[in-house]
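Input sequence (146 aa), recorded before submission:
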Amino acid sequence: MTDETLDELQYSTDGRRVSLALSEDLYPLDAIYGAAYLFVDRCWMFLTRPADKALAVRLTPKQEGADLEALAGEFANELLNQVLRFRLAESTGPIREYVMARAFSMSPAQASIDQLLAELEAEELDEDPLEIAVPWEQKNGEAKDG
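Predicted structure, token format:
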């Protein structure tokens, strides 16, 4: 088993799989899960918790002869991508919530919906080529029982 370093990310390989040691101080758990999810079609994934605030990820490629170093690098890049997405979502969450609350609470939107419904009700539907508005009995010449 060999231990390597991709800058500050430590990983090890035994020739068949690659294992990465991750700190939750650097990589939030949701970001780790997000990155792992994107690799499930290419690798079998195994996650363990060797210590508090630490997570070990073992990737076993589904395809024989995969480049394990490249796989570790791709996973590290996806981790950074997921961390950025997580932090952006976290920092812009209150703004998104405010915008959505304003969009749903504004009365002009309700007024325009009410106006459209009133226009539809007032509109005369003179054309009825399929005779949908004609009762079945009238269309077929049968008298209504009453």
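Checked by second reader. The chain has a mean pLDDT of 83.
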